[in-house]
Amino acid sequence: MTTIKSIHVAAFIEELLATHSKPTVKQHLAALRMLFDWLVVGHVMNVNPAHAVREPEHVVKKGKTPVLAADEARVLLNIIDASTLVGLRERVLIALMAFTFARIGAAVGMRVEDYMEFL
Q1: Hey, which of 21, 30, 56, 106 would disulfide with 102, CB 3.0 to 4.6 Å?
Q2: Helical (H) or strand (E) element with 17
Q3: Are the CB atoms for 115 and 95 separated by under 8 Å?
Q4: Residue ranges making up the domain that contains 14
């Protein structure tokens, strides 16, 4: 275990790049770094050989989360039955999330002071 050097980790990462995507390789390298950090803390190794290895560059310019257009959001909201309390609740939550781009956790955690009245 103590014979593993940075060059070995770098070679492993290069091998992975031939068959895996860059985000997957970055995840593997992060796991190796955590493993070797744990071994360093446990005094099994003196240094972390994965620390000096550069990870592949991966830039995300556009997210994968789809965004509803205003007309699509209106169609979705009109489908929900607002005559029941549950339907009204669902309609309010979906409208809040659609028009504020908030996730459900943020929407549920809002207080009355967080809402703005539109007159």
Answers
A1: 106
A2: helix 6-19
A3: no
A4: 1-60
Whether residues 40 and 91 share a domain: the answer is no
The predicted-structure confidence for 50-101, as pLDDT tens digits, reads as follows 998 998 888 877 777 777 788 888 898 999 998 999 999 899 888 888 877 7
Query: What is the rounded CA–CA span in Å between residue 102 and residue 96?
Result: 7
DSSP string, 35-104: HHHHHHHTTS-SS-TTTTPPPPP----S-S-----HHHHHHHHHHS-TTSHHHHHHHHHHHHHHHH---H
Same-domain pairing of 1 and 47:
yes
CA distance 26 to 14: 11
